[in-house]
Amino acid sequence: MRGLRSTRNRICHEVEVVNFVTAVGSRPDPGDGRITAWAWRSVPPPRSRAARDIAGHSAYETALAGQNIVYTFGLATGFLQLVLKAAADPLWLG
């Protein structure tokens, strides 16, 4: 989650979204050229040297860079659904 938050914070402030993603595949289709797989790209560290920004960048590079974007958002969604369940019913955690 820290890597995703770091990405969100940097987009439009110092880095364009296109710098964070790269096309990694497409289906063998009838030739319409659509890209069907995207991955997180390794990006340079932030200009800021604040510990929070460096830690966020490190989390991004460790957990996200090179990974399929759909997969990482699926993991984040699953985690947030568990957090929502726990918040709605504290006894759910046991």
Write the topology of this structure.
Layout: H1 2-10, E1 21-25, E2 37-40, H2 51-63, H3 69-88
Antiparallel strand pairs: 1-2
Describe this protein's structure.
The protein has 94 residues and is mostly helical. It has one domain. The chain is built from three helices and two strands; from the N terminus they run αββαα. It has helices spanning 2-10, 51-63, 69-88; strands at 21-25, 37-40. It has a two-stranded antiparallel ribbon with strand order 1-2. Helix 1 (2-10) crosses helix 2 (51-63). The chain is flat and about 50 Å long.
Number of DSSP E strands: 2
- Between the first and last Cα atoms, what is the distance in angstroms? 24 Å
Count of individual domains: 1
Number of helices: 3
Give me the side-by-side strand order of the main sheet.
1-2
Largest sheet: 2 strands, antiparallel
Oligomer classification? single chain
The percentage helix is 40-55%
What integer is the average pLDDT?
82
Structural class: mainly alpha
Strand content: 5-15%
| Shape summary | flat
Which blocks of ≥5 consecutive residues have pLDDT under 50?
Answer: none
Radius of gyration: 17 Å
Q: Topology as H/E string?
A: HEEHH
